[in-house]
Amino acid sequence: MSALLNQFLTEGRDFLEAIGAKLLELERASEPEQGPLMVELFRLVHTLKGNSGLFDIPEMTRVLHAAEDLMDAVRDGRVEFSRDLADHLLEAMDFVSLLIDEIAEASGDGQPPSTSGHAREAVRLGEALRGLMAESIQTPDAGDQPDAASASNGADSGSASETGGWLDDLPESVRDDLQNLLASGESLCRLLYRPEEECFFKGEDPFFQLTQLPEPIWRRVGAREDWPRLAELDAYRCVLEFELILSTDVETLIEHFRYVPDQVEIQPLSASMLDTSVSTATEPDSDESEPPPPWAGLSPEALESIRLALEAQREILTLGDSPAWLGGRLRAVGSTLAAILTSLGRDPATSGLGTALEAALATDSGTYLVRWLDHQTWPEAKPAAPEPVRAAIVTPAPSHPTTTASAPTAASTPDEAVNEPVKFGRRAEDQLANLRTLKVDQAKIDRLMNLIGEMVVAKNALPYLAARAEDLYGVRELSREIKTQYGVINRIAEEMQDAIMQVRMLPVSFVFQRFPRLVRDIAHKLGKEVRLIMEGESTEADKNIIESLADPLIHIVRNSLDHGLESPAERRAAGKPPEGRLTISARQESDRVLIEISDDGRGIDPDVIRRKAYEKGIIDEAALERLNDQEAVNLVFAAGFSTAEQISDLSGRGVGMDVVRNAIARVHGSIDLRSRVGEGTRLRLSLPLSMAVTNVMIIESAGQRFGVPMDAVAETVRVARRDIRVIKKRLTTVLRGRLVPLVALNDLLALDAPQLANDDDELAVLVVRIEKEYLGIIVDDCRETIDIILKPLAGFLGDLTGYSGSALLGDGSVLLILNPRELL
Amino acid sequence: MKRILVIDDAATVRLYHRGILESAGFEVSEAVNGLEALERLAEGPFDLYLVDINMPKLDGYGFLRELRAKDIPQAPAIMVSTEAEDNDQRLAYACGANLYLIKPAKPAQLLAHVQTLLGERHPS
User: Fold this and answer.
1) Is the pLDDT score of A126 beyond 60?
2) Architecture, CATH, for domain A694-823
3) Average pLDDT of the segment spanning A27-49
4) Chain B touched by A301 (CB under 8 Å)
5) Phi, psi of A697 (to 5 degrees)
6) How many helices (H) and strands (E) does chain A have?
7) Could you tell me if A366 lies within 8 Å of chain B, comparing CB atoms?
8) How many angstroms separate the most distant Cα atoms in chain B?
9) Which CATH class is domain B3-118?
10) pTM
């Protein structure tokens, strides 16, 4: 990427960020403050548009130009600044941000890649922005006229076009020709080009544009409206329209007319459009837009054997060893590949295989041949049945007379706007300060993570090996050496793991950054005034943790805005400032990340909660009396609890706080809720920094081994059988003056065996902590703790509750990891 | 006519392979172990080798290593084994095999593989 383009992209992001911030600021600014802000906004948009003009990005320039004109009108007081206007501008800036992201991602050669796929979207946004101006004023200044005219032209031509009409106007002979061409597999397009009237003044040459296209099969140049008498005809206005049928594909045409996407209509032709009576069966080869591959006639068995052989050659080439006979092996692969090409009906001599083989032989490595393999087109594993392919191509597309690569977006309803505040994916803020950073594909990091996971497991085999060396073969010396070496490998593996984990760390701003916009949109919708304060956005945690935070946090924030914060009137009545405060903060405490969401709203009334919980049957009468206020407040986490008087479309859609709590628990986090009536609510999430390695305790029961995550284990004790009592039909014991209910693991897992006691008739008890309750699980024996890489259960085992996953042990056996929370 | 060398110490297997291959119009030569197979190379290079693994004197791996070290046109080789072991397959590839099949291979399948590696257009 050239330095200039890089500079533009970096600066562009800064500008977008500033524009977004200024727009939000403008909304809350008082009247006298607004003036300077608008001037500043105009300057930002204007400069960004100017910058974009240096490059070949018409889609971006188009939208920015419209935004600039609009801001100019706003600055001059011709158009009033409104929330609606801000929404449109924000959407336009999101679009520009998306384009910047796309350009940055495509590793270009100094020129930005084509963004013509977004042409349609650009036209829509540009028109929407200009529409805002048109509503307010009917006197566009001279500079605006051409664009405004083109916008309306585009709209007119779109509505005026009739798919069927023009076909009937074609001469019979042309239609026959078209049908024959389609039958022979040509891809045809119809193009309707209506240059804008002022095009000559903009240095455009519609006729030249058309001559640059391949020779059309048929063409028509006509008047787009009835011409006035010659004396009144303005020769400097273009009032022509061009209609062509060309043998080319849609993409080429879109690219060709990317500067004037609103002035053209492009429509791919299909056989069925010309004559609906033409059935696919009578014309077997009529509809292949690409020539069939040379292997089209091969049987599935033959293709399968070819695929297998290809796979084998690839495996041979990537073996990575270099024996003395490597040359012969490479040549054998070469002759095998040549044979495969011949089997596929291709000529090995023209395939470049020879060159690749020579390069491979010269470098004593299979790399060049692998590269060659990668660049060839091979049959798919399962050859697609030809029939469905034909059907798909023949299907006419009358509902989309004009086709562009970008999917048309329906105008979003306000509700959608709230649910999906970010319409163009990641916004400019995502790209904060990524100077001197290396972009790495996430899959690569995940692969590293998996590999180190395997490494950790593999190294755990060494202690087993040492034990075997000593016990089985009686070589103590070797055993000691293995143990020493294990220590070294263990240290390196741990450091590697740590290093990889560092790579996976993301700042919480990754999730936080969407909140200013989200809070703004929701607050507007609810008619509330909210000031959002965010702290500690640079706090980091593992990518998985950060990602798992997104949905729960959004839900919590929505809850706060919907149920927590009061309307300005209510707040005034309660003697609070009309503007509510919502604070989201993050910080690290030892190996946990703490995230707090607090508001100064009405708080949660424990009495209301008690009553609701009782009405919904979540608690019984005894509990109603017994629960203290804090316990009552925590009832909002109970499944099926929702306090909203009426279900609003924001929160309380049946997705309650229990979902939030479970989502947090899945990443081994906990949640703490504090609330004071009339003063506000504070939710604190405590999450691990990383969840890559889990420390588990191995327990035995009924002759099987299981793992229990150590963060759930409070202690392990031996309880004499005589100290176990039955209270209210439940096994119970007293530990240090505290009553602890007991359950036998064999009962929980439906294992048909009694729990075993030791020689002193004492039972092993694993005390686990769930929320604030302590529970004892009776097991046969507690063993050592180990670090494992937890893999979730997959396939039909995935539905099993009670297990959080499985792990591979150093001796190759599988350990099932229990999930006490689900078990109990 | 394409020439195939079938290398196996079991006469039954040689016969089985010969029958399948000859019926498809290939010329088949036989060798009872790797050493004899190497001697057969003097008759001129073959177009394909069908190699058993376990053989006396010189096994299939050894034969392939010797073959690939020779300065002759290198034709594809299929290793035929009774074991579906990943390690065996890797070793076979490392020694110079181009395909690893489990025997007994069904006639149709074996033929399809042989035709692929010989660059024959498959009959549809």
Assistant:
1) yes
2) Beta Barrel (2.40)
3) 81
4) yes
5) -100, 135
6) 30, 22
7) no
8) 42
9) alpha beta
10) 0.40
